[in-house]
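<purpose> Linking amino acid order to shape
<body> The protein record starts here
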Amino acid sequence: IEARHGDDPTKWRWGMAHRARGRHLPFSEVPWLSAFFETGTPTSGGSYTVNVGHYAVADAENPFANVHAPSMRAIYDLDDLDRSLYIHSTGQSGNPLSPHYDDLLEFWLRGDGVPIAWTPEAVEKATAEMLRVVPDTRAPSA
């Protein structure tokens, strides 16, 4: 532990050893791309806690790294679905150039959630942008 975190135990923090790594498949396997696509953050929790975060002590390089945690959490209010909450560990976009690529990470880390709009009225009120995908109904060319 001292080799990794210094000789002052008062400065040791579980989260620094128990980092969650948000891997991207396939770009985490490309060294010069992984830095653009991966996310990572110190986390709390452990294998037997409510905020589960398994680790593999047999991994000599990172024995306490958070290797398995819930990427999505949700609370559904069955009395009023519009009061339901969800969170994803990264963001809403798969594009690392988007501001929404990892914009939910801090919420996930705190255990917070964002509202899920269920009814048409709630969806319309919560909508900031809309992408409408319409099939091409023209006859295929020969």
About this structure: The chain has a mean pLDDT of 87. The longest helix spans residues 31-37.
